[in-house]
Structure prediction request, 231 residues.
Amino acid sequence: MAPPAPARRELLLRHRFESLAQVREHLHVQDGRSLFYFRAASLVAAGGDRVLMEISTPEQQMLLRGSVVSRDMTGLWLEFPDGRLARRLVDGGLAQRRQRRVPMDLLVEIKACGSRVGRILDVSMGGARLGGVQGIATGEEVELRLLSALPEVPMSIGRAEVMRTTASEAAVRFVRSDPPTRVAATRLLDAAQRAWARSVEQPHAPGCCGKNGILFEPPMPRLGSSRGSVL
Prediction:
């Protein structure tokens, strides 16, 4: 089976809110998907570009993967799927994490009983989330090796234990008692943080969602057939 296509560049965006209520006001469901307006007049982007966005309140965080629908003179309309996102906002808000997850999109070779290719979707001090993988089991130990070189990061990330799996994803915990793994995992996280530090960040606009209920947004666009994904 052919390996996944090489990772494409993504826009890295952050939007900070003061409360979960403000987040709900700015996520608009249309045709089973969510639209979000990101105000950034100088941001260079086009329809179809991939987006990785962190939405946060003072206590909580959610990472979203989607795409640019359209842009105007003041910003971008972004598209995300609605199902899991809508349920999270209604049932309990954004994800509360013991360790901060840093988004990535890197090809990785996963060695256990055999070898397979997947992607590192995000990384933390303790572990990582892998996408596009099947055939590995909870409790299994795997070896991770990058297929894309990063400055100052060893190609061999080292040993990790599979903590849980879904149909196509796996959460792994680095074996940090192994010195080479501890060094490589730390450098991988540092590389992700350096990339994320160059993201475009916006706070919630003062006066928006106020007592008059007005949102500082242009009219919503019509959606095409593309879909994003929730992390």
